[in-house]
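Need tokens for this chain, all 106 residues.
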Amino acid sequence: MSSRISILAPSREFIDAEFAPLISAEELSITIAMRLASYLPGNVSKAQQTVTTGTADLDTAAVLDIALNASVCQVDRSASNKANILALFSKGIYRGDLVRNDMRLK
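Here are the structure tokens for all 106 residues:
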């Protein structure tokens, strides 16, 4: 492994065409997915994150500098506005050995 650890494979963000012009190309390249939701008009009324444990395929293993079939976490995030329109959807893949998930249970 290299001395610089990459924890996230390049993520993919999908933004509703109505809202896409509100976010600059620079912001798209440097801002994490859920922070992009702050550029959306009105308030985000619903946001969801789904974390799925899986294994690295050839491409993911190469990008993250991990072994083939090493543990990864696939993370899907979505944000909808008050009209319940899906405004933002993102997919990311993180190294499984560097993921921490905290949940408040009560």
